[in-house]
Structures are given as C-alpha cells and as structure tokens.
Amino acid sequence: WRERLRGLEGWSDGSLQVDALGPVEGEASIAHVRGQPKFMHDLTFDLRFSGLQRCRLCAKSPPGCRCSKCVRVKGKILATDFSWDNSDVVALRVQRDEPPGPEHVKKANQEECKDIADESLVPAVRAFLEASLAEYRAQEGTEGPKWASQLPPSAQWSGAPYSAPTQ
Predict the structure, then answer these.
(1) For a tag site, which of 71, 74, 138, 148 has the least CB within 10 Å?
(2) Cβ proximity of 139 and 30 under 8 Å
(3) Coiled coil where (predicted)?
(4) Is residue 73 a contact partner of residue 95, using CB atoms and an 8 Å limit?
(5) Chain mean position to CA 77
(6) How confident is residue 18, by pLDDT bands cut at 50, 70 and 90?
C-alpha cells in the first residue's frame, strides 16, 4: 500500500499540491476463508500539502501573480481509520500547519485550511483510495471454485419423516 499511496505525491489542482506522503502504518493482506479471498487492510497515513489560494484580482492575472491578499495554505490530511470493515467511509481529517512566508502575508487558519482542502484535495484523495481499493480487490479473482459449505443443497429438504410418539 505504501507504493500505491505514493501515487498521490505530486498531485496538484493549481492551487493545492501534495508535497509528501507521511509514514504509512498498519498492514494489508489477502486471506482465504472457505476458498474465497478476503481483502483485509487497516492503515493510517498522512499527506502533507501546501498551496496558494489566489485572490480574485490575482486569479484573473497571468499565472505566478500573487499579492499579500492571496492566502497561503499548508497542512496535512490524516487518514486515521482506513480499514476493510469501513472502507466505504474513510475518516480523513485536515490539520493545519504554519505556512511559510513573512508575517504580513495572509495565511489560512484551521477553518480556512479545512475549507480549501475540502474543495478539491479531500475528494481527490477519496477517489484515489476508492480506485486503489478496486485495484487491490482485482488482484485475485473471487470467482474461484466453491467449497462444499458454500454450494446450495443438491436436493430439496423435505423435512424429517413424521412418526407418532409411541406409548
């Protein structure tokens, strides 16, 4: 998964970019239960990002234009519970870091950082994780031979033969 998550490094939408993948902790494995693969994973990781949200005037200007009203953003997305039992809902939390630059420039606070990241970066990370899960599950097909306990019964059960109690 570490190599798979490295695919997020360098992602950019023009205003935000993923700078680095932090430590990836946990494990992932494919276990076979009654002949069928179970794709288990339980991971935590963080993605460090930074960027610049340009003000209206600078947004209309050529690329590279910025002023003291443009908002500098720096933070990380924490994936605290990316596991197989709740892979449909990945817990992603945005945490702000102090952006570089002199004191007179505008820097995003926690709420602004979260709002800016929630616009494009968080949905992109969710989409990437969904695609990675689909690829992970496609590694080994689930259409293998069935065990006897997984097959439907070969004959209809008609119940136990009726016999009246004897005295």
Answers:
(1) 148
(2) yes
(3) none
(4) no
(5) 10
(6) very high
How many of the other CB atoms lie within 10 Å of CB of 143? Answer: 6
DSSP labels, 90-107: -EEEEEE-PPPS-TTSEE
DSSP summary character for residue 44: E
Q: Write down the domain spans for the chain.
A: 2-140
Q: For residue range 57-86, what is the model confidence (pLDDT) as tens digits? A: 777 777 777 777 788 899 999 888 776 666
Considering only CA atoms, which of 111, 46, 101 is closest in space to residue 72? Answer: 101
- In CATH, the number for domain 2-140 is 3.15.10.20
**Burial of 105 (C-beta count, 10 Å sphere; 0-12/13-18/19+):** middle
In this structure, which amino acid lies at residue 87?
A: S
- Strand pairing of 91-96 and 36-53? unpaired
Cα 119 to the center of its chain, rounded Å: 16
Residue-wise pLDDT for 129-164, tens only, equals: 888 777 766 766 555 555 555 555 555 555 556 655
The radius of gyration of the chain's CA atoms, rounded to the nearest angstrom, is 26
Report strand pairing: 106-107 vs 71-83. Answer: parallel
Distance in angstroms (rounded) separating the CA atoms of residues 67 and 57: 9
Look up residue 40 and give its two tokens.
Answer: 């288990």
Task: Please state the pTM of the whole predicted model.
Answer: 0.70
